[in-house]
Amino acid sequence: MPHSVREIADALGADVVGDTALVIARVAEPALAGPDDLALAMNPKFANGLSDGQAKAAVLWPDADWQAYGLKAAILPKRPRYAMSGLTQMLDKGQGFGKGIHPSAVIDPGAELGEGVSVGPLAVISKGATIGAGSVIGPQCFIGLDVRIGPDAMLREQVSIGARATIGARFIAQPGARIAGDGFSFVTPEKSGVEAARASLGDQGDARAQSWNRIHSLGSVSIGDDVEIGANSTVDCGTIRDTVNGTKLDSLVQIGHNAVIGNHTLICAQVGVAGSATIGNYVVLGGHSGVSDNIFVGDGAILGGGTKVLSNVPAGRTMLGYPATQMDKQMDIYKAQRRLPRLLREVAELRKAVFKSGKGD
After folding, report:
1. Nearby residues of 298 by Cβ (< 8 Å), 6 or more positions away
2. In a domain, 63, yes or no
3. Is the domain of 42 the same as that of 111?
4. Which residues pair with 186 in a beta bridge?
5. Which member of 7, 77, 148, 287 has the greatest number of CB atoms within 10 A?
6. Alpha-carbon span 358 to 17, nearest angstrom
7. pTM for this structure?
8. Smallest Cα–Cα separation from 229: which of 256, 259, 254?
9. Distance in angstroms (rounded) separating the CA atoms of residues 80 and 39
10. Which of helix, strand or coil describes residue 281?
11. CA nearest neighbour of 332 among 343, 342, 320, 317
């Protein structure tokens, strides 16, 4: 549904100037915006593209000279980037999933669905499952035995949730997310080569090759309120207790068994968190970073992209590299590495000079 510039600004709590009755059909990048689009030009670098488009209205930054860009109206939020959250929510057309229960869905008589729950084609909801009011279970989803999902959940297509998982309110799972699969946990009858190598930090010694026996997952997964799991990400069951997750996960993230993830933490794509690791609150794990097993990352810590953490990280620490060190120290190391070829050439020249001087004595 189209909205006026005034309606959008009021919803965002932002200042608005110009012809506030202009009607907006969609948002667009400045250079691609048509006359009915709201251009997103939230800093001067992006605003330079307004001359290439046809937008009459735009989201700019506080104190922007909006008339200089030939606009008829402008929305001026105090924090433009944050305004994207409310703006995209307001204009999101959704996935178009139908309401009610599709005839091809399979729902066990022992499952309990709250008021207004939508269940898509070929979805399966198992015995004892409880789905909160207003939730959407998309096409081909699987909800396991005794799973509990809070109100207003949105499960996109082909999401699976294993037995006995507990999930809070307003949960979002993107396509292909897998919750409560068994943990990757195996053991050998006697001390394995991996255990020997870890203890010695060297060769395996006299440890012999052995078969791996499976440790079953008796726990499940507990997920808090307002959690989002990205496409094709996985959260393993705990071995005895539940794996706990209270955060936002990007696509292709793996959370190992028994891990505990705090609240308001952001985990980017291709991150791996090994079993029994503990991640605090307000932590950011950059893309392709990794956390070793049985260690903790303290509250407010930040791992840069590709960082591999092998030991505990104190609260508030910013880390980078492999093995991870404090970011400023790691940058000094990178700079030193770039200077190594030149330093080696200089050392070689000095050695030649010293040897020549020695022959002359």
Report:
1. 280, 283, 312, 313, 314, 315, 316, 317
2. yes
3. no
4. 214
5. 77
6. 81
7. 0.86
8. 254
9. 12
10. coil
11. 320
Amino acid found at 215:
I
Helix/strand/coil percentages in the chain, nearest 5? 20, 30, 50
The whole-angstrom separation of Cα 89 and Cα 130 is 27
Element (H, E) at 23: strand 23-24
Full pLDDT tens readout for the chain, 361 residues: 789 999 999 999 999 999 999 999 999 999 999 999 999 999 999 998 999 999 999 999 999 999 999 999 999 999 999 999 999 999 888 898 988 999 999 999 999 999 999 999 999 999 999 999 999 999 999 999 999 999 999 999 999 999 999 999 999 999 999 999 999 989 998 888 888 887 888 888 777 788 999 999 999 999 999 999 999 999 999 998 988 888 899 999 999 999 999 999 999 999 999 999 999 999 999 999 999 999 999 999 999 999 999 999 999 999 999 999 999 999 999 899 899 999 999 999 898 888 877 665 5
Q: What backbone phi and psi angles, to 5 degrees, belong to 103?
A: -60, -25
Both tokens of 248, joined, read 């936002």
Enzyme catalytic residues: 257
Give the SS3 label for residue 244: strand
Q: Which two tokens stand for residue 43?
A: 């800093």
Residues 110 and 86 in one domain: no
CATH of the domain at 221: 2.160.10.10
**Stretch (H or E) spanning 106:** strand 106-107
